[in-house]
Design goal:
The structure holds two protein chains of two kinds. By secondary structure, chain A is α/β, with parallel strands linked by helices. Helices cover 47% and strands 9% of the residues of chain A. In chain A, the strands form three sheets. A five-stranded mixed sheet of chain A has the order 7-6-8-10-9, sandwiched between helices. A three-stranded antiparallel sheet of chain A has the order 1-2-3. In chain A, strands 4-5 form a two-stranded parallel sheet. In chain A, helix 3 packs across helix 4 and helix 13 packs across helix 14. Chain B is 78% helix and 0% strand. Chain B starts with a helix and ends with a helix. The chains are: A alpha/beta, B mainly alpha.
Chain lengths: 518, 230
């Protein structure tokens, strides 16, 4: 017996499709009963289309040239008789199979979504058209809050309820003030109206761009010409502002010269992958690391990071605005005061300082342009002394630890120059506290000493170790209680976070108020 | 030089000469050199380790031992004893330790804790140390808003505060469980000594966030929770 391969394929394919449909609950009576008319129509349409598409390649009317026999699949000679399903029967089998799969895949919801698709495509977009406000049901007015009860009224009310008081007096219930509902400002829609012809909308846009709708066209043209003239007059500033934006010139420049060796001399790894960025270096600073005597520069860098960039203490300064010049000469500030431009150029700092000053000058020019055009000018930039600062920290055995300040002039701008000469930088014991105070003095201009009364002395004895350790919370090393820092067993449990937070926050309140960014 | 000393010196010289001859071969020299280098390295590393970790390790061990002691004391007291001690110290601190800075002074609390326990009762004294420290840590665990809410609720403020503190201590204990480590006293000490290395920025009123804590308050809270519930 020989069966035509097309018939066999049609039957197998049909059975597989029917099985898939059955697995997708296509024959579930409840599901079929609730299938909507549009879903049924869609299933029938798509199944017919699928069969028609398959039929192009299948060619139902042509008999199979290969047959399935007991010995396998064989090529047939022309005119060999073979059992074959009629072409309509093959179509029907495939149609039923496709319909089953589609019935499992396409439910009422999918059919509804497909039906609505053309309407969704042609619906006006809110970004292009002025749509009428949707008629939303009025929201119920919020319930008035209960009247605030003055303190101590609970007892008086209770006494009144029990008859011990004749009146509630000031505790009598008062009506709460009616809530004030602010009227939302109504937005004027300038997009295309739903019934507006396209040409009218186009003309309105063109007229709006040329400002000829609100005023006399002649006046508008004159204004245009004046505006253009103002832009040409300030062209230099406009182009410079764009250049600053594109090249990413700094928004502030704060240079600090430190007369200590660079704690991170370039390594081979840095040469290959680049030195870590400032923000990365100060991202996760330990609170109170242990230092070796040779770590003087690391101590200074750590303290600087805690004061300015540690995020755990709140708002930080911008890391990219600061440049530390290690290995600075001991007379850096004197040379800076004598010849600012030459010294800054020699240290590679002149370009960034000039870029900031130029950026500020351009912003002032743009404000003048805005004033001339009669529009609201942008906020005035901070003074030059707030966005550029120069400071020197020198370790000098004869240093007095007192910060001195003076002003240097560069390109006509007065810049603050501060110098502090400290006797030593120590990492052991309470040495870092001195560094904190010194750097805070140098940067913020004055020592930041939190006021805190000394706690009462503990009674003698070594009992109650936990409470005695808790006394450390009251002993602020920045306020003078430094003795515990020389005891290793206390340093391990010292509440540095609390004390450092108090000092750094106080410092930043003072320091950040003096600084700004463009 | 006495004859006996001369004889000893001659014998030592003979012995050394024999050893030198024995190791005179290249193989012997290499073996002795390797042994000497290894000994020197071992000596240097041991000294360095002792210098670096010796004192710190001793401090940690003594702290952990004290934590284990107070933990045992809190467990020994039992629920009623703990409640009685807590009430006594709370009342004593309220009566005698008026605090202008937000928490009672440590010196005053030591006096109160001494008065709450009879002489020689070390378990009571150890537990009182925990209770008094927890009393100083109330403001660190429960923010002002929550405390005002508890006062306004009109019930027993002390009980309400204790319940609120218990919830916060449980969050801290969850941190301890996540960090893991045994024995528990050493784990408590390690967690509390190292916890502040991470940033704990809490929004006001967020009961699920425990802010930065001093070691003493962290230990006292954990000991009170672990000793009282686990």
């Amino acid at each position: 017996m020989m069966l035509g391969i097309k018939s066999v394929a049609a039957v197998i394919l049909g059975l597989v499709l029917i099985a898939i449909g059955a697995a997708r609950h296509a024959f579930d009576p409840g599901y079929l009963a609730h299938l909507s008319g549009s879903a049924c129509f869609l299933i029938g349409l798509l199944a017919s289309l699928a069969v028609a598409l398959v039929g192009v390649g299948w060619r139902f009317d042509i008999r199979s040239r290969t047959a399935l026999t007991r010995r396998g699949i064989r090529e047939l000679a022309r005119g060999t008789a073979v059992r074959e399903l009629p072409a309509p029967a093959q179509r029907l089998v495939l149609l039923v199979g496709f319909a089953c799969v589609l019935a499992g895949a396409l439910g009422n919801h999918a059919a509804a979504r497909i039906t609505q698709l053309p309407a969704e495509f042609t619906a006006p977009s809110p970004s292009s058209y002025c749509l009428p406000r949707s008629a939303r049901p009025a929201e119920p007015a919020p319930e008035p809050p209960p009247p605030a009860e003055p303190p101590g009224c609970a007892l008086i009310k209770r006494a009144y309820q029990l008859g011990y008081a004749k009146s509630l007096g000031a505790c009598a219930p008062r009506p709460a003030a009616a809530p004030v509902i602010a009227a939302a400002p109504r937005e004027v829609c300038t997009r295309r109206q739903l019934d507006e012809p396209f040409l009218h909308y186009g003309a309105r846009r063109v007229a709006g761009a040329a400002e000829v709708t609100a005023v006399d066209p002649v006046i508008a043209a004159e204004r245009r010409v004046a505006d253009l003239g103002a832009h040409i007059d300030f062209l230099d500033g406009l182009l410079a502002d764009i250049r600053h934006a594109i090249t990413g010139s700094p928004h502030a420049a704060h240079h600090l010269w430190i007369a200590l060796p660079d704690p991170h001399p370039g390594s081979l790894g840095d040469a290959v992958v680049g030195a870590p960025r400032c923000a990365q270096r100060f991202a996760d600073l330990p609170l109170w690391p242990a230092w070796r005597p040779a770590d003087r520069a690391l101590v200074v860098e750590h303290v600087l990071g805690q004061l300015l960039f540690a995020t755990r203490f709140g708002t930080t300064a911008s890391c990219n605005d600061y440049v530390i010049h290690w290995d600075a000469p001991a007379d850096a500030c004197a040379r800076l005061a004598a010849a600012p431009a030459r010294f800054l150029a020699g240290q590679g700092a002149l370009a960034s300082v000039r870029a900031v000053l130029d950026r500020r000058r351009r912003q002032i020019e743009l404000a003048a342009l805005a004033e001339r055009r009669g529009i609201r000018p942008p906020a005035a930039p901070p003074p030059a002394s707030a966005i550029v600062s120069l400071a020197c920290l020198v370790v000098d055995p004869s240093g007095d630890g007192i910060a001195t300040g003076r002003t240097v002039t560069l390109d006509g701008e007065a810049l603050a120059l501060r110098e502090l000469r400290v006797r030593e930088v120590r990492g052991a014991g309470d040495g870092p506290i001195d560094v904190y105070v010194a750097l805070a003095t140098l940067l913020a201009g004055r020592a930041v000493a939190p006021l805190r009364a000394a706690p009462p002395a503990l009674p003698p004895g070594d009992d109650f170790p936990l409470i005695r350790a808790d006394q450390l919370v009251d002993l602020d090393p920045f306020a003078g209680a430094r003795a515990p820092l020389s005891r290793a067993e206390l340093v391990e449990v010292y509440p540095f976070e609390a004390h450092l937070r108090g000092f750094v926050e106080a410092f930043r309140r003072r320091y950040l108020a003096q600084r700004g960014r463009l | 030089m006495t004859p006996a000393t001369a004889r000893f010196a001659a014998r030592l010289a003979t012995w050394l000469r024999a050893r030198v001859v024995a190791v005179g071969s290249a193989r012997g020299v290499a073996r002795v050199s390797a042994l000497a280098i290894a000994l020197v390295f071992a000596l240097v590393f041991s000294l360095a380790f002792l210098l670096w970790a010796g004192p710190a390790r001793a401090d940690r061990a003594s702290r952990a031992a004290y934590v284990a002691r107070v933990l045992a004391a809190v467990r020994t007291l039992g629920p009623s004893g703990r409640d009685r001690l807590e009430r006594a110290i709370y009342a004593g601190a309220r009566a005698r330790c008026r605090a202008d800075t937000g928490w009672p002074a440590a010196a005053c609390l030591i006096d109160v804790a001494r008065g709450a326990c009879s002489a020689g009762d070390t378990d009571c004294a150890d537990a009182a140390d925990v209770v008094a420290t927890n009393l100083r840590g109330v403001t660190a665990f429960v923010d002002d808003q929550t405390r005002v809410r508890l006062i306004r609720s009109g019930g027993d403020y002390r009980a309400a505060l204790a319940a609120e503190l218990h919830r916060r201590y449980a969050v801290l204990a969850a941190e301890l469980a996540i960090e893991g480590g045994a024995p528990e006293a050493a784990a408590v000490d390690t967690l509390c000594a190292e916890r502040d290395r991470k940033v704990h920025a809490c929004e006001p009123g967020n009961a699920a966030c425990i802010p930065s804590l001093p070691w003493s308050r962290c230990v006292a809270a954990l000991v009170w929770f672990v000793g009282g519930t686990l």
